[in-house]
TrEMBL record:
Subcellular location: Cell membrane
Protein name: glucan endo-1,3-beta-D-glucosidase
Signal peptide location: 1-16
PROSITE patterns: GLYCOSYL_HYDROL_F17
Bilayer-spanning residue ranges: 476-498
Annotated ranges, domain X8: 359-444
Amino acid sequence: MAILFLFLYLLANSLSLYGDAFIGVNIGTDMTDMPSPTDIVTLLKAQSIQHIRLYDADRAMLLALAHTGIRVTVSVPNDQLLGIGQSNATAANWVARNVIAHIPATNITAIAVGSEVLTSLPNAAPVLVSALRFIQSALVAANLDQQIKVSTPHSSSVILDSFPPSQAFFNRTWDPVMVPLLKFLQSTGSYLMLNVYPYYDYVQSNDAIPLDYALFRPLPPNKEAVDANTLLHYTNVFDAVVDAAYFAMSYLNFTNIPILVTESGWPSKGDSSESDATPDNANTYNSNLIRHVLNNTGTPKKPGVAISTYLYELYSEDLRLGPLSEQNWGLFYANGAPVYTLHLAAAGTVFANDTTNRTFCVAKNDADTKMLQAALDWACGPGKVDCSPLLQGQQCYEPDNVVAHSAYAFNAYYQKTGKSPGTCDFKGVAIVTTTNPSHGSCIFPGSGGKNGTIINGTTLAPSLANSKDSSSLSQFYKVGSFSTILIFITSILSAFVVL
């Protein structure tokens, strides 16, 4: 029976590679107050995010993702690339430790070997393809090569003369790497990983690219960019860059390699020279990108062909070096509060909707109990929170423990202060969540009910289990129809074994 379950798991993963387009998120770690893996997974579940990319293969994170079904791309960091690219044994050991040890509990579906190696670490370029081959060999030996794809993310700057897209070609300097790389991707049924940043194309264009064109805003027909060689019309920068990659591959006689966009996004804040790095523009770009991808429209060159995309990024990374914009690409702050609320009404279950910014403040799962008790005492004392619902016999007394009681008190303070910045911290033991922590007759402030504050609208990102929205549920069953069938088959088989 265990073998059957493993087979079904492998089949589900292999089918997911070629289905409808999906939206995923990148999870960076350059943060002062990095959330715990448990808190990250809680946020992913609350936002119905089913695809993530890690920049490493952190063991604690992979363990936290176990049994969630979330599809995970793990990465070989650039500083490990040289060792893996020069030693088959080193690559095999990396796969054994970071992949095989977590399969099938953690749903690992891809390995990204390095990141933008040709442009950021050119001295490692000669061993890049060897690293991919060694990783692939280890997967073949473990019989995992059909459901875990191996590739390497590229900066779109490896493509020269990218408009019109039909004239695009890869920088010929990298032909000794790019040609064998594309042969590897073709032979293994993998995809070209590409980082696409219309923000940088726009900023570096010296006003040649209109802002609306970069943000997916509708353009009148006479303003659309037309490729004179193909007569294809381009309404946005994203499609033009992706098609440039398709044409660059075809120039080298590779016409059947799909593209996976491993990074794309827009910064919400910048310094004085980055005037278009704003919350409104970030919201517009990411909302339109999500809608564009999930509609499966493809690109002018490849209409209807899925261009699955990972947003950059889940959290803003305040420790990143460079201009201010580098620290402000996230959808959420480290404490779980949304940077802005995406305009995604009727766009499916990813990031739910944009009807309200409903958030709650709760205790961290791994917080020290003594610190929680001290924070609870403060909230119910100097913080002037009404903690009467926590008294014995009252609606929020159960469960009778400091974590549950702190969650109620923290949230009451957070809501009372209008969710002001810094009001959900309590010396590091509290975190913002979009999941309504109410339970039974205990209704938390901010969620409505007799001991809560009424807020119009629906939750920012309800979990599927609690969603009453029929359109969201129908989207879920459409996207996850194979998973639904898999559960059904598994139930029947289980019953058969019992009989």
